[in-house]
Design a protein that fits this description.
- By secondary structure, the protein is an alpha/beta fold.
- It is built from 11 helices and 6 strands.
- Strands 1, 2, 3, 4, 5 and 6 form a 6-stranded mixed beta sheet that branches.
- A hairpin with a 4-residue loop joins strand 3 and strand 4.
- Helix 6 crosses helix 11.
- The protein is flat, with a radius of gyration of 22 Å.
- The mean pLDDT is 90.
């Protein structure tokens, strides 16, 4: 069963060691941190809400086994999961993801020769129509559209949206959304995610790539990273750029860019398996979601390539 493979591929006890600092030995004993983390991992693995996760742990035997519950053990209710996420926080979750990435590097599964970099959208958990109506009806709103009527844009979105960190994002001529961008770097050896970052949707890809650049190797990227600040950051890190050039670039080499496209193509599907809807509100909590989704992707990938157990130090 896939749950058995997931439990074998990582030492969950060592991985959860930092979580024990968040718990006290005094008072009534609760669910162990390793058990709680397995529950949260299962939630993202199966794309479940808190209430759905509660029901799955009650009635699904395989899920009970994965989360180390006996057949008649009491399982958590849905409020436990949100409290646990708040307890560990995004910073500690990020450190745990880095620990896994370091272990993958030590095992030779992340080599750092070629790294694919790209971004994808995350739509905010907001009622955009209601927020827009508030902006139109606000007599104090100084932002106007082309017809001189009150409007909502990135300058005043925080005044009306329930998620104060969300912004308008545009990709192409038709793809417009309110929310965030997920920036990811993928090691081209086995397709494992090395780094992940989240920015408001209006952040430029080229200016945000610095958050996910590796330490060594070559960068495979699309036209958005082939000029400007992205190239400056890539060169400042001592990395080799294999980003596609714009069609009007003087040094455009179509044969070379076609070769770069063939190298990027196997990793374009990394984003297709990740939810494009934000579960939570605020940039920090959406980053937590992105980190968990990246962790799920990596462990699924380890199972696919039949990797040996990864030692956690």
């Amino acid at each position: 069963h896939e749950y058995c493979l997931i439990l074998k591929v990582l030492d969950w006890n060592k991985l959860c060691a930092p979580l024990k600092r968040k718990y006290s030995n005094m008072g009534r004993a609760g669910y162990p941190p390793e058990q709680a983390l397995r529950c949260i991992f299962l939630q993202f693995f199966k794309d479940l809400s808190d209430r759905q996760l509660e029901q799955v742990l009650k009635y699904d035997i395989a899920s009970k086994y994965f989360c180390n519950f006996g057949l008649i053990d009491q399982t958590p209710d849905y409020t436990f999961f949100s409290k646990f996420r708040e307890r560990i926080g995004t910073k500690l979750m990020s450190d745990m993801f880095k620990t896994i990435s370091k272990a993958l590097q030590d095992a030779g599964l992340i080599r750092g020769y070629f790294t694919f970099v790209d971004s994808s959208k995350i739509e905010a958990c907001v009622d955009s129509w209601s927020a827009r109506d508030k902006a139109i009806e606000d007599s104090q709103n100084e932002e106007k559209d082309d017809d001189g009527k009150p409007t909502m844009n990135n300058k005043n979105a925080k005044n009306y949206l329930s998620d104060k960190d969300a912004r308008y994002g545009v990709k192409g001529n038709k793809d417009i959304w309110i929310g965030y961008k997920r920036h990811v770097s993928v090691d081209a050896h086995q397709g494992l995610i090395l780094k992940v970052a989240v920015t408001p949707a209006n952040a430029h890809d080229g200016k945000s790539v610095k958050h996910v650049l590796p330490k060594t190797g070559a960068i495979l990227a699309d036209k958005g990273y082939g000029h400007g600040q992205a190239q400056k950051d890539i060169k400042a890190r001592g990395l080799h750029s294999m980003a596609i050039k714009n069609n009007n670039a003087k040094d455009k080499d179509r044969k070379k860019d076609a070769f770069y496209c063939s190298l990027r193509m196997p990793f374009e599907g990394v984003f297709s398996k990740m939810s494009k809807r934000a579960r939570y509100r605020s940039k920090v909590k959406v980053l937590f979601q992105a980190i968990m989704q990246a962790m799920v992707h990596n462990i699924k990938r380890l199972i696919t390539i039949k990797a040996a157990p990864i030692p956690i130090t």
